[in-house]
Amino acid sequence: MSESEEKPANYTAQECQNGVPERCSFYMKKKMRYCKLEPVAGSGYCTIHAHDMGVIQNKRKRIPCPLDPKHSCYEDLLKNHLKKCNARPGLNPPCYVIDINSGSDDGENSSNYQVSIRDVSDQEVLALTKVVTELHKGFVGELDKNCLFHEVLQEEKAKPHNGAAAQKHINQQASLIGHLQKAGLLRDGISYLEFGAGKGGLSHWIQLALSQCSNNQYILIDRSSVRYRMDTYHRGAEQGPDFERIKTDIRHLHLGKIASLQNDMRPIVGVGKHLCGSATDMMLRCLMETPHRDESGLKSKIVGIVLALCCHHRTDWQTYCGKAFFKQCGLGAREFHLISSMTSWATCGGTLAAEKSPGGSDSTYNHYRYGNLLPEEREEIGYQCKQLIDHGRLLYLKDHGYHVQQIYYAEKEQTLENMALVAKCT
């Protein structure tokens, strides 16, 4: 059965005019609606789905678009299509400097970048878990838990239509803004840079928390175009300052070349919520190493950072800004990537627990790998791996003159990625 035939029992029939569908008759099961494109005359389907369904037999060949294979075009019109395709790359902004925040491999063998715990023996993994536990005990220890809630989100939290997922995001955003306030970073006269901004929700609530202030700037950085952006709430004369968006990868972002930052020397605060993997390291390197310097050499002041951490399994040695700490511990690219791979144990608790046989106890649990480590033990080691990686980042910021805290900012029930770095210039 084709996708177009798999309709729910209560689907809405297509509107027709004189017996002819006004829109394509292809039903998209995933979106639970019909395709919205106009049908080709006499087929009932749009150009793309008419070919997919075999309704139109045409000698002209359709091929996936090389810019975005989710859609197709006629092969003989490819050149024209690429000129107007919505997925075509735009002109790079002036602040684009290729690979400026990518770091370096320090001469490490590139093959060490591909290794994971699936590629090595159980004995090597078990030996490394013992190293991780000792290093964690010696350098990190127990993290403080400090789950705050800023009052700016109190009304939003009370809205009955917000479901469980929305409530989790509200609590996380409220805590991050609470930590901004606690660190003295929520005030007038600040340029706020949100990295990996997405819809811009964090900046939106920061602005509302500072609605009585008139001298703040908000710059949102993301490599993708995003729908339903919260920027739209900040376009009126009485809705606070406009949000400036910069569409570029953090990997290539040079703060010193952002025009709006060159023209004033307001202190800068960097914020981010769940920047994925290496994007965290690129953000920190961007803030520490690329700020604007005026003609006298005065550097833009990065006064603080509040960053919720995420996806440590997607970090890599080249971009990692905490290499000095790992080298100090006698660890290199190979060990780093194995530790990065083990961080997934922390966020796969449900999967690991399911490996126990029904009704089985810890004493009867048996796993074919890693010396019969219990799911709870593997989860704990996973968190230790995450915190070791973050400790390297903490030391990197300390080397640049910051007081840094590594904390739990949210409950595990709200997110398994519940750790954050809070840094303030000393």
TrEMBL record:
One of its GO terms (biological process) is tRNA methylation. The keyword Transferase applies. Its EC number is 2.1.1.225. It catalyses: cytidine(4) in tRNA(Pro) + S-adenosyl-L-methionine = 2'-O-methylcytidine(4) in tRNA(Pro) + S-adenosyl-L-homocysteine + H(+); cytidine(4) in tRNA(Gly)(GCC) + S-adenosyl-L-methionine = 2'-O-methylcytidine(4) in tRNA(Gly)(GCC) + S-adenosyl-L-homocysteine + H(+); adenosine(4) in tRNA(His) + S-adenosyl-L-methionine = 2'-O-methyladenosine(4) in tRNA(His) + S-adenosyl-L-homocysteine + H(+). Transmembrane segments: none annotated. InterPro entries: Methyltransferase_TRM13, Trm13, TRM13/UPF0224_CHHC_Znf_dom, Znf_CCCH-type_TRM13. GO terms for molecular function: tRNA 2'-O-methyltransferase activity; zinc ion binding. Residues 62-89 form the CHHC U11-48K-type domain. It is an enzyme of class 2 (transferase). Keywords: Metal-binding, Methyltransferase, S-adenosyl-L-methionine, Transferase, tRNA processing, Zinc, Zinc-finger. Coiled coil: none annotated. PANTHER family: TRNA:M(4)X MODIFICATION ENZYME TRM13 HOMOLOG. tRNA methylase which 2'-O-methylates cytidine(4) in tRNA(Pro) and tRNA(Gly)(GCC), and adenosine(4) in tRNA(His). Belongs to the methyltransferase TRM13 family. This is tRNA:m(4)X modification enzyme TRM13. The lineage of its organism: Eukaryota, Metazoa, Spiralia, Lophotrochozoa, Annelida.
